[in-house]
Structure formats: structure tokens, C-alpha cells
TrEMBL record:
Domain UVR: 207-242
Record flagged with keyword DNA damage: yes
Subunit and interaction comment: Interacts with UvrB in an incision complex.
Compartment list: Cytoplasm
Function as written in the Swiss-Prot or TrEMBL entry: The UvrABC repair system catalyzes the recognition and processing of DNA lesions. UvrC both incises the 5' and 3' sides of the lesion. The N-terminal half is responsible for the 3' incision and the C-terminal half is responsible for the 5' incision.
InterPro entries, A to Z: GIY-YIG_endonuc, GIY-YIG_endonuc_sf, GIY-YIG_UvrC_Cho, RuvA_2-like, UVR_dom, UVR_dom_sf, UvrABC_protein_C, UvrC
Gene: uvrC
Residues of the UvrC family homology region profile domain: 262-476
Name of the protein described by the UniProt record: UvrABC system protein C
Keywords: Cytoplasm, DNA damage, DNA excision, DNA repair, Excision nuclease, SOS response
CDD domains referenced in this protein's UniProt entry, alphabetically: GIY-YIG_UvrC_Cho, H3TH_FEN1-XPG-like
Domain of life: Bacteria
Originating species: Mariniflexile soesokkakense
Length: 597
């Protein structure tokens, strides 16, 4: 498939948070940026006049735009940091140093310390973060320190050394900040209960802590200590906005490749996320044209081999949505929950956005291509002799048999053609009889089309089961159209499709585009019919009330509604407003009727 122009790439960007990457004509990455809304941010480069000469040069060099969609703006910031450090783009001046974002570490020790760090080691310790704000880290550590007594010394508190009395308690113990584990004043179990509670806080479960802070803040405010109350308020705001985990950087997931797939009738889209030392450093989506009816498993196995060779990946583990066979050297993981599942979901999300953008680009470049594909698919799915370029759908609307009406909606090339929609008032049927009503409207619709020599549809859809379909067929027989127009009925409960003279219904895949278009037709016919039914009922009710006023006839009612637009306005009108419309005598009758009432 041809590479879309820059203009088309801009038009199809998603309105989602993420990271964008600009490439030049040689395919070299020249700039990485983050955005709360990718479409708005990237478009601004090409719509604004830039004062900065370097930015103008950058914009001129951009040939391709790639992007990675993420969940939040914070994730976008972290991913931008990873990519800039990895690729060192020419026009990025920030984040090229080795500085990394801070983490909170719960050390793998007998009495674990809790502290902030910028370095992550694989030593069995628990790391939470990374955090994009040091203020958040300080607030969390202050909260933990205020709630729990923990040691901050770096002694090796082995059972042996404590029993031999190697250490003595320090000032922190006398200040009440530590319970003296170094002298055996606190047991290991008691200490670990605190650590479990701290881990919950760092995961974001701190309702009790927030409640405690809010009580404290109110107390300070009541005691007129407003500075202290303000400090507590700032802590509450930080905690309420705190995000415990990032999918973008996760030390638990080391060097792995993540693959996901989404496919349709013609193409498969495989997304690849590469993680190195717990950080996402690459995202790439491969588009595969189907030759036969290949399964997702076949496409994914082919794509994994191709992508790993192209990007020289030597990772020993991959995450995939289902089992694939890649030989004994590669560990295949199918995540079900937790951090690994989150990263797989992120990959799938990027594959879906890539597919959506491709569809949008195809529609811009070749508007007929999408319609042609849908029509060909519908012809195959519905076992038709020709493509259903012109489809009509009928629906009856009556409530307890009053004001029976019917609707006919028309789709051309898979899209609504609203100028061709038609309403029908049932004329020959008395009472609620859906079958007879369907027979009448189908006959009237196609009798008129034949009389006026209009082009007949290729497909008729009847909203209802076998009964309504049989009624419609009677009309086609009467007009000698049986066999000339394909006709099916759709039953609401199980979305069954009924064909003439076939007792066994057809069930389409719930995800198929053919079924979605049929459902859209059915829903549109129902909406259009109910709208007409309500209008008719409302007008009848309003007109009937005006006509019940003694001395007021139909002509006067028409004059009143033409002037006042609604019966409600007539009822609320003043006498001097009514007189110019209907004269003094009738104005008094109307005014007295409503105001006496």
C-alpha cells in the first residue's frame, strides 16, 4: 500500500494522549514529543507560523509521522523520556542526559527501609513509580513517615547481630520515629504488617489516609492555624491526583517483545512493543495483506518472525494474546492479568488505532473503495445474486392500534439516503394488524415506483420474522416482482435472518459489518416510524382539543395554528393577541374556554 501524504497522516491522527515521532526522507527519527491530544498537538506544527528558525527547519524536513497511543499524559511524559534517551533525535534538546525519574523503593531486607531512588536494581526489592514529580514522592514519604514508625538507618539487622546486642537505639527511637528493631524492641512480624500497609498506599489504596488528612486539615482550620491547614490541603491534592502504576516503565518486566493482532476480511495488523530494562523503547505496526483466508494465528506467527528479524530482537520472552509456536528457544507468555496484561492491552490498542487510521486514509484517497468492499462482503454474506447498492427497510409503528403508520428507509452504497425515506399512513387496515399493514405499504411503495419508472432496490429488509416476510411476499407476488428483488426478514430477539421458502434462519457473526449495516437499517426504520407516529398522535390530540371549543371549526383551528405555531401558545394567548387572528367573537370563546378551564 502506498504511503499516505503528510496531509492525510495529519487528518487521521487520533485525539488521544501519546507520543509522536517525526521522521525525515531518509527514515531517520528527528524529533520526539508528547501530547495530551495527538491530533491537536501535531497539527499545530503545520498550522502555526513559527518564530523559531530551528522549528521552521524541522517542519520542512518532516516526511513521516508515527505515534504511540498511551493511557494518560503522565505515561506520555515517561515514554517520551525513554525514546529521546534511546534515539537521541537531532531536534530534541531536553532529556539527553542520564537522569531518570524517581522511584520509591521498599528494600529487600529483614526490616525493609522505604526511600526514594533514581536507580533500579534487580535485587528483589519492590519499586513503585516512576514519578514525574518529586513533590509526589516527598508527599508520599511524608505520609508514610507520619503514619508508620520505620527505621532509616542502614544497619544489617540480622537475627544474630540483634541477639548479640551489636546495635544501640539512636535519637530517632527517642523521638518516636522508630520502634527500635535494632535492639529487638519490635518484632519482624509487627514491622512487616506496616510494610504491607505501606505497599497498599503506594498502589493507590489510601482512603483511610486521605480521610485522616482531611480531618487534620479541618482541625487546623478551626484552630485558626491556616498555614498548616494549607500544607495539609496541598498533600491531599497531590495524593488525589497520584497514579500508582505506569505501563510505560515497569522494572518487573525486563527485556521482552509484545505482540498483538487485529484483523478484518482483507488485512491483518500486528503491533510490536519492544521493552528494554523495563522501558518501552519501540512501537511498530505491520500491515499484512491476506491472500487466502489466513487465521490470526498464522498471521501472527509470520509477523513475529519478520518483525524480530527486521529490528534484530534477541529477547528470550514474548507476550502474545494466544499460544504461538516459535520453537524451543523463545518463552511464550499469554498474560491474563496484572502488569503483563496491561502492556499487552496497550499493544492491542495501538493496533486498533493503526487500523482505524488506515481506513480513514483509504476513505480520503479512494472514497469508493470502502463502499465497494462492504457491498462485495454483503453480497457474499447474504447469498445475493448482485451487490445490494440500493437497500430498503420497512417497519410498522402503532401503539395499542392507534394511528397505525409505517416507515421505509433507504440506504445507497451502505449509507443512509434520507431524501428517499418515506412515511406511510395505513389506509386499508382497521386495528393493529402488522401483517396486513406490511402487505399494504410494500404494495403501495413498489406499485408507485413501477408506475413512475423509478429504479427498484436490489434488497428489501422487513423488520420482523416469518409472518411479516410472508405478508411482504404477497405484495411482491401481486406486482410480479417475486425473484426480481431479494427480500429477507430480520427477527429482533436473536438477530435471525429469514429467507422466503427457507424454514432455517441465517445467523451472521455478531461482529460482521453486514449485520451492523442491517441493524443500522432496522434501527433507522424504527426511529423514523416512531417519530412519524408521535407527530401524528400529537397533532391529532392538539387539534382535537381546539375543535372541542364551542363555535370553533376546522378553518379557525388552522388559522390559529398557522399564527401561533402550537396549541399550547393558543391556550396561553391574551385576548388582544387572539382578536386580530380570529375576530372578537371567536377570540372571546377561546379565551374564556381556557381561562375558565
Amino acid at each position: 500500500m502506498e504511503k499516505p501524504t503528510l496531509e492525510i497522516q495529519l487528518q487521521t491522527l487520533p485525539n488521544q494522549p501519546g507520543v509522536y515521532q517525526y521522521y525525515d526522507a531518509e527514515g531517520t527519527i528527528i524529533y520526539v514529543g508528547k501530547a495530551k491530544n495527538l491530533k491537536k498537538r501535531v497539527s499545530s506544527y503545520f498550522t502555526k507560523t513559527h518564530d523559531n528558525g530551528k522549528t521552521r527547519v524541522l517542519v520542512k524536513k518532516i516526511v513521516t509521522i508515527k505515534h504511540i497511543v498511551v493511557d494518560t499524559e503522565t505515561d506520555a511524559l515517561l515514554l517520551e523520556n525513554n525514546l529521546i534517551k534511546k534515539y537521541q533525535p537531532k531536534y530534541n534538546v531536553m532529556l539527553k542526559d542520564d537522569k531518570s525519574y524517581p522511584w520509591i523503593c521498599i528494600k529487600n531486607e529483614r526490616f525493609p527501609r522505604v526511600f526514594s531512588t533514581r536507580r533500579v536494581f534487580k535485587d528483589g526489592s519492590d519499586y513503585f513509580g516512576p514519578y514525574t514529580s518529586m513533590k509526589t514522592v516527598h508527599t508520599l514519604l511524608d505520609l508514610i513517615k507520619g503514619l508508620y514508625s520505620l527505621r532509616n538507618c542502614n544497619y544489617d539487622l540480622s537475627e544474630n547481630k540483634i541477639e548479640t546486642g551489636k546495635y544501640k537505639v539512636c535519637l530517632e527511637y527517642h523521638l518516636g520515629n522508630c520502634k527500635g528493631a535494632c535492639e529487638g524492641f519490635e518484632t519482624e512480624n509487627e514491622y512487616h504488617e506496616n510494610i504491607i500497609a505501606i505497599k497498599e498506599i503506594l498502589k493507590g489504596n489510601f482512603k483511610d489516609s486521605l480521610s485522616q488528612f482531611k480531618t487534620q486539615m479541618k482541625q487546623y482550620a478551626e484552630d485558626m492555624h491556616f498555614e498548616e491547614a494549607q500544607k495539609i490541603k496541598e498533600k491531599i491534592e497531590v495524593l488525589e491526583n497520584y497514579q500508582a502504576k505506569s505501563t510505560i516503565v515497569n522494572p518487573k518486566i525486563s527485556n521482552v517483545d509484545v505482540f498483538s493482532i487485529i484483523s478484518d476480511e482483507s488485512y491483518g495488523y500486528v503491533n510490536f512493543l519492544q521493552l528494554s530494562y523495563g522501558s518501552i523503547i519501540r512501537s511498530h505496526t505491520l500491515e499484512i495483506k491476506k491472500k487466502l483466508d489466513e487465521t490470526d494465528l498464522e498471521l501472527l506467527e509470520l509477523a513475529i518472525t519478520e518483525i524480530r528479524q527486521r529490528f534484530h530482537s534477541n529477547s528470550k520472552e514474548i507476550y502474545v494474546p494466544f499460544k504461538v509456536d516459535l520453537g524451543k528457544d523463545i518463552k511464550v507468555t499469554i498474560p491474563q492479568l496484572g502488569d503483563k496484561k496491561h502492556i499487552l492491552d496497550l499493544s492491542l490498542r495501538n493496533a486498533k488505532y493503526y487500523r482505524m487510521e488506515r481506513f480513514k486514509q483509504d476513505k480520503i484517497v479512494d472514497p469508493d473503495r470502502h463502499a465497494n468492499r462492504i457491498m462485495a462482503q454483503m453480497k457474499t454474506d447474504l447469498r445475493l445474486h448482485e451487490e445490494p447498492r440500493h437497500i430498503e427497510c420497512f417497519d410498522n409503528s402503532n401503539i395499542q392500534g392507534t394511528h397505525p403508520v409505517a416507515a421505509c428507509v433507504v440506504f445507497k452504497n451502505g449509507k443512509p439516503s434520507k431524501k428517499d425515506y418515506r412515511h406511510f399512513n395505513i389506509k386499508t387496515v382497521v386495528g393493529p394488524d402488522d401483517f396486513a399493514s406490511m402487505e399494504e405499504v410494500v404494495y403501495r411503495r413498489y406499485k408507485r415506483m413501477m408506475d413512475e419508472e423509478q429504479a427498484l432496490p436490489q434488497l428489501i429488509i422487513i423488520d420482523g420474522g416469518k409472518g411479516q416476510l410472508s405478508s411482504a411476499l404477497k405484495s411482491l407476488d401481486a406486482l410480479n416482482l417475486r425473484g426480481k428483488i431479494a427480500i429477507i426478514g430480520i427477527a429482533k430477539r436473536l438477530e435471525e435472518l429469514f429467507y422466503p421458502n427457507d424454514p432455517i434462519p441465517l445467523y451472521l457473526d455478531k461482529k460482521s459489518e453486514t449485520l451492523k449495516i442491517i441493524q443500522q437499517l432496522r434501527n433507522e426504520a424504527h426511529r423514523f416510524g416512531v417519530e412519524h407516529h408521535r407527530n401524528k398522535r400529537s397533532k391529532t390530540a392538539l387539534n382535537t382539543e381546539l375543535e372541542t371549543i364551542p363555535g370553533i371549526g376546522k378553518k379557525t383551528v388552522v388559522d390559529l395554528l398557522k399564527h401561533f405555531k402550537s396549541a399550547k401558545r393558543v391556550a396561553n394567548a391574551k385576548l388582544d393577541e387572539l382578536e386580530p387572528v380570529v375576530g372578537v367573537s371567536r377570540a372571546e370563546k377561546i379565551y374564556n374556554y381556557y381561562h375558565t378551564k
